Amino acid sequence: NALRHTPRSSRISIAARADGPRLEVAIADEGLGVSAADLDRIFDRLYRTDASRRREDGGSGLGLAIARSIVLAHGGGMRADSVPGRSLTITIWLPVSTKL
Question: pTM of the predicted model, to two decimals?
Answer without folding.
Answer: 0.76
